[in-house]
Design goal:
Length: about 45
């Protein structure tokens, strides 16, 4: 794994944990998987 993907994974995990919400966690996981599949082409946007 490259560092960019690791940073995205960490930020997604922190976001989900901070919210303590399973629904947000599922959404975060979908976002993470999608970003990895796309090759992190949207890494510049922090939406």
């Amino acid at each position: 794994m490259n560092t960019k993907r690791v940073k995205i994974a960490q930020s997604v995990a922190k976001y989900a944990v901070a919210r303590h919400s399973s629904s947000r966690w599922n959404t975060a996981m979908k976002m993470l998987k999608a970003s990895l599949l796309v090759g992190v082409s949207v890494s510049g946007s922090d939406a």
